[in-house]
Amino acid sequence: MISGMKKYLLATLLLIISITAYAQVCSYLVDSWIDDNGNQMCEYDDGTVLNKGRGMHFCPMSINCD
């Protein structure tokens, strides 16, 4: 059987791994601009660039955070 201290250590380790894995799923906004055609562009820290289209659009602060 696993002793009490080892159970807490294992639980803590699993929690840290799960938080780290979840944090890698989210992409956060690093830049936004309007291109030459008037389209709102949004760039995220994983390299994703979204074209929000013409007009007044706002970039989401994060994407892929399920």
Characterise the protein shown here:
The protein is an alpha+beta fold and 66 residues long. It has one helix at 4-25, and strands spanning 27-34, 39-44, 49-54, 62-63. A four-stranded antiparallel sheet has the order 3-2-1-4, with no helix packed on it. It is rod-shaped and about 65 Å long. The two termini are 36 Å apart. The model has no long low-confidence stretch (mean pLDDT 81).
User: pLDDT under 50 segments (min length 5)?
Assistant: none
Radius of gyration, in Å, reads 20 Å
**What sort of overall outline do the alpha carbons produce when their principal axes are compared?**
rod-shaped
Structural class: alpha+beta
Strand order, main sheet: write it out.
3-2-1-4
Order of helix and strand elements from N to C terminus: HEEEE
- Strand runs, count: 4
Tally of separate helices = 1
Q: Which tags fit this structure?
A:
66 residues; alpha+beta; 33% strand
Explain the layout of strands and helices.
Blueprint: H1 4-25, E1 27-34, E2 39-44, E3 49-54, E4 62-63
Antiparallel strand pairs: 1-2, 1-4, 2-3
Summarize this entry quickly.
This protein is α+β, with helices and mostly antiparallel strands and 66 residues long. The chain contains 1 helix and 4 strands.
